[in-house]
Design goal:
The protein is of the alpha/beta class and about 280 residues long. The protein is about 45% helix and about 20% strand.
Length: about 280
């Protein structure tokens, strides 16, 4: 398989990471090949898959797609949200994602669920969306934009391809607006990023692009709960994972998850569901 490369270091790092056998196998195993995003947890013992579905359902209730809607999911991962939207509403979805490995799994799932006529999987970066202006009624994204070192560029592209009055519904792990300098360096180093977005960044940038904020369900506790749950699952399934994922990857994953948990519990990180409307 020939892999397209993007010149931006953070984007290239994300592409190489999610294309790797270890990462693909880990996420496919832990999430069951549907979702790779933060879930909504009612208790510490909730399973990751159902919690992930609850996030999709919350976002869907805000976006309110219909059979006539055309939806773009940027950073679609394995395409679980696209399948949920297409199967429940009949809408058409473009699942845009830079990992060709994930995209092949996505296409296979779509065929298995007989949704390939409604879902188009596109190998591309959300920093350069390969569609014409004002193409989509809804743009959707789950925990993907943190991987870009040019998030303002991503938002400009979202604004360009979204129709007037269209909805932009997304989640993203963020630093808090008042996060002290340096405390997130272990996370940033792992992602090859200089900084993370914060709620103020999204509000200010999208306002400047002609969007109005509809709501922000800020739920920082869900970020810590999610990464704690993934860490617990990784530890509990250590023997199973060792058969298919390298020991080095597993240990680095555990350490990385602990950094996310610490950042969330200390109030340095936040997360939630943002909804914006494009005014013109």
């Amino acid at each position: 398989m020939k892999t397209q490369q993007y010149p931006e270091s953070a984007t290239r790092t994300a592409q190489e990471y999610y294309n790797s056998t270890d990462a693909d196998t880990f996420y496919f195993t832990i999430w069951g090949g549907e979702d790779i995003h933060i879930g909504l947890y009612d208790s510490e013992s909730d399973e990751i898959g159902p919690a992930s579905i609850r996030t999709v359902e919350r976002m869907k209730s805000y976006a309110r797609p219909t059979a006539e809607s055309r939806v773009l999911d940027v950073g679609a991962g394995y395409g679980g949200a696209a399948r949920a939207l297409a199967s429940s509403t009949g809408c058409s979805v473009v699942a845009l994602n830079l990992s060709e490995v994930e995209n092949e799994r996505d296409r296979q799932k779509n065929r298995e669920q007989r949704l390939d006529a409604r879902i188009e999987v596109v190998d591309a970066s959300f920093e350069n969306i390969p569609f014409e202006d004002e193409t989509f009624d809804i743009v959707w994204s789950q925990d993907a934009m943190l991987h870009s070192g040019r998030r303002a560029r991503v938002l400009e592209e979202v604004a360009r391809v979204l129709k007037p009055k269209g909805q932009f519904v997304f989640t993203d792990p963020m630093r808090t607006d008042d996060c002290p300098d340096g405390v997130l360096d272990p996370i940033l180093d792992r992602l090859h990023l200089d900084d993370m977005a914060c709620p103020a960044f999204y509000r200010e940038t999208l306002s400047g692009l002609g969007f109005t904020e509809v709501r922000f369900d800020e739920m920082p506790h869900q970020l810590a709960a999610h990464y704690s749950r993934v860490l617990d699952e990784t530890v509990a399934r250590d023997a199973e994972l060792t058969d298919v994922v390298s020991r080095d990857y597993i240990e680095r994953m555990k350490n990385g998850l602990r950094h996310w948990i610490d950042g969330g519990r200390h109030g340095y990180l936040t997360w939630g569901v943002f909804q914006f409307r494009k005014d013109k």
